[in-house]
Amino acid sequence: MMATLLILRHAKSDWDDPSLADHDRPLNKRGRRDAPRIGRLLVERSLVPRQVFTSSAVRARATAEMVVQECGIAESQVVVAPQLYLAGPETYLDYLRWHAVADGPVMVVGHNPGLESLLHVLTGAHEHLPTAALAHVTLELAAWNDLSQLTPARLESIYRPKELED
User: Is the model's pTM score more than 0.90?
Assistant: First the structure.
């Protein structure tokens, strides 16, 4: 079976309030513009996720919610996973192994450097994921609980907001 993993870095966050903890930073204007663009792209490319797992950080949750809203799927499909906040690749792999069950695309929304490392561990690709960048990865996988660093995977494409047309 081929599985689809969508790796999405949160959209651009706001640094204006120095009293906010990193975890609590909201999206800025560009982030609120880019997140829905990624949702529309997913619809256009027939990549609407069946499951969405997001870091608990405010900026990641807001990104996930805006994306699924554009995809026309329920926000209840967004699972907030505190362990994905600033996680490394092994944490993402473990989480997906235990929680992903969809037979369609599965999306994780999180942070760098963990997401770039996850992409590298799975595909061998060294790619920069700026804010709101989406990596589309296909995996040769019988079931999500078989996922590991050794799972054959291919980077299909990367979508960066600056490269998308409005």
Answer: yes
pLDDT digits (tens, 9 = 90+) for 70-117: 999 988 889 999 999 999 999 999 999 999 998 899 999 999 999 999
Are 153 and 137 in contact, with CB atoms under 8 Å apart?
Answer: yes
Does the domain at residues 2-14+23-143 carry the CATH identifier 3.40.50.1240?
Answer: yes
Please answer whether residues 30 and 16 qualify as being in contact, where contact means their C-beta atoms are separated by less than 8 angstroms: no
Report CA dihedral (92, 136, 140, 153) to the nearest 10 degrees: -80
Omega into 113 within 30° of 0, i.e. cis?
A: yes
